[in-house]
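Re-run with default settings, no changes from the original entry. Doing this only to confirm the output is reproducible before filing.
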Amino acid sequence: MNQTINWKPIEDLLITHYQPGQINRGERAYSPLLLFKCMLLQKWFQIKSDPELESQINDRISFKSFLNMPLDYASPDHSTFSRFRKRLPDEALIQINSALLKQFHQYGLSINKGMAVDARLVKSASRPKSKDRLEEIKQHALSPEGKLDKNGNGNYSPQSESTSGTLPAKAS
């Protein structure tokens, strides 16, 4: 995206409507383009809150790459996103979105929403049993046939295996 889109006209529009802080103490102000690109990520990936956006930027290399942000730099604070959104007039957003969409159209690009997903892996059945199949298994376990062990011997109970650690003795 950064190689395709010319961000300079977008940045120029942003700067005419949003002046970052000019005070020379404290942390350096974030550029309006960086903050606007954060808003794009939030929209495109359906990130519902500013704190979640902050977290996702800190977590995802692809987001930091899109923002041209070094990996060891922290994301802007969630309150920064809120202040940026409030200070940017609606007419500015219309102009900026129009300029961005014009470039998308020029290159034949379209916007498809993505989704930021938690990437924790959990082991699960590849084909979970249906409710009906689970009921069948339960009924079979309660039937006389379901009480047989794998060798066909009666009086098998899974509880006896778990409490004693051995199978019941064979009937003679």
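The chain is about 50% helix and 0% strand. Residues 137 and 146 are 9 Å apart (CA to CA).
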